[in-house]
Amino acid sequence: MSNYHTENASFRDPSGFLFYKEDSLYRQVNRVYQRHYDHLMNSGLYDALVDQNLIIPHEEVKGIESTQPDSCYNIIKPERVPFIAYPYEWCFLQLRSAALTTLRLARVALDYGMILKDASAYNLAFHKGRWRLLDSLSFEIYQEGETWIAYKQFCQHFLGPLALMTYKDQRMSLLSRLFIDGVPLDITAKLLPFRSKLRFGLLTHIHLHAKTQTKYADQGESREQVNREFSQQSLQNLLESLRNTVKGLSVKTDGTEWAQYYQDTNYSENAFTGKKSVVAQLIDQVQPETVWDMGANTGEFSRLASERGIYTIAFDVDPGAVSQNYIQVRKDRAENLYPLVMDLTNPSPALGWAHEERQSLMARGPVDLVLALALVHHLAISNNVPLETLAQFFSQICENLIIEFVPKSDSQVQRLLLSREDIFDNYTVAGFEAAFCQKFDIIEETPLVDSERIIYLLRVKHSYNSIT
Amino acid sequence: MKFDIFFKPLGYLDPGTGSFIIQMILAGVLGIAVAVRIYWKKIVAFFRKDKSGGVQDELDDMDEYTDE
């Protein structure tokens, strides 16, 4: 069984677990979950979720040997999701969409006599243009009288971070990176301003919820000691109240520094169109399956890839730009483009138990092609990364690289140098080529019209990835 | 009610005593809150000139069934 390995993001739930066999991902359904799984499949819930694009579909597979046969009831193979992103990589609107989808999953499940037993933001994936549940084993048979077991988790993973982003700053989403099971409610309550208490939903689901948690934390009052029943109507009211609260939260999605970038830049119309056609041509030359556009802004160039049917991730550090991109993706019903918030100077690390629950950005690569357009000067000059170190990084995340060199004479670089000393003697075309040629071969080199910038197509040395 | 191991809800999450108790407390209140909100929304909608809900409403419609 050496070609088996267990996926370490799934160890908490005893209902089953994920494992890889020869690069395919499977999920074992444990016997302990048998009755719930059968109900999911036979009640019509699973079909309803697939029809409504709310779940990643799976198929039951035969002939796959289990690593834990004693506990095995069934083995299913979920449809492949090319890239798993995490809540701290989503902009406000994405987290809000995922929250509403989670509540909708809970409502639909109730119609079929089941309840959503966890409300982890990590269970949601943006796949083929829709938010979908990754984990088919997230439901259990509903028993009238039970409270919602995932209520705390929903508030920690969704409501708290959304409220913090609304009242404080969009970058508060990064708090989710510090706490593997969502932001604790006492912290959220302390960080939120007093006026958040004027909103009924936040007063109850965050502030009073946090207080009750603190009050009963040491008293050990068990669930059996409270004899009152929580009716199904109460549960529906709870879900509806959470939904109203989420829908009442919003942030401004334009007007941040970068969201207007394409309007403000010093590009001439000619240079911009020219750059687009050069990049498009190079993408066609590489014919990648997957593209990462690093520093994608609102995704203007990412679309050159995604509109060719290539699965494309558009990373940008600015949540405003990512929001704009996400809105456009949803309006276009684009299926291949996934905008994400990522600070390349400090990308997502490996997190959780044994550093294996959430993958670092680099562990989720390498990909066939990376776009690094109008990016190098930000990394090399604003962030002082030596060109050799940059080349090393890019050679680890891709096979092919389309990279734009922006020389010092360019007004964008001049702007970066205005407030600081120019200590970048080797930031020249020759210095750039020397640094990158340690790791890459230059395949194409195209100067942009009306500009002093150069677009390169580079290929990692010793790569067997063929370019046609 | 007693269930054997195969019938018992799995409950691997610790729902937290406080989270359980607040739901019990809210059980009575939320029904009223949800009803009040529906009427409040109708009143606001009646007086609001601009009926379009903007980008967020468009996204919401894609993410969830409109129950109304």
Textual characterization of the structure:
The complex is a heterodimer of chains A (468) and B (68). Chain A is 36% helix and 18% strand. Chain A is an alpha/beta fold and 468 residues long. In chain A, the strands form 4 sheets. Chain A has a 7-stranded mixed β-sheet with strand order 12-11-10-13-14-16-15, sandwiched between helices. Chain B is mostly helical. Helix content of chain B is 60%, strand content 0%. Chain B contains 2 helices and no strands. Chain B has helices spanning 17-47, 54-63. The longest helix of chain B has 31 residues, at 17-47. The model of chain B is unreliable at 1-9 (pLDDT under 50). Classes of the chains: A alpha/beta (468), B mainly alpha (68). At the A-B interface, helix 1, helix 3, helix 4, helix 6 and helix 7 of A face helix 1 and helix 2 of B.
The SS-based structural class of chain A is alpha/beta
Weakly predicted, low-confidence segments of chain A: none
Strand content of chain B: under 5%
Q: What is the count of helical runs of chain B? A: 2
Question: Mean pLDDT of chain A, as a whole number?
Answer: 91
- Backbone CA Rg of chain B: 19 Å
Please describe the biggest sheet of chain B, giving its number of strands, its sense, and whether it closes into a barrel.
none
Strand line-up in the sheet with most strands of chain A: 12-11-10-13-14-16-15
**Count of separate DSSP helical elements of chain A:** 15
What is the terminal-to-terminal distance of chain B?
37 Å
Number of strands of chain A: 16
**How would you characterize the largest beta sheet of chain A?**
7 strands, mixed
Count of individual beta strands of chain B: 0
* Percentage beta strand of chain A: 15-25%
User: Which spans of chain B of ≥5 residues are poorly predicted at pLDDT below 50?
Assistant: 1-9
Oligomer: heterodimer
Shape of chain B: flat
Biggest interface and residues each: A-B, 67 and 36 residues
Helical proportion of chain B, percent range: 55-70%
Please state the overall shape of chain A, judged from the principal axes of the Cα atoms. globular
User: Into which percent range does the helicity of residues of chain A fall?
Assistant: 25-40%
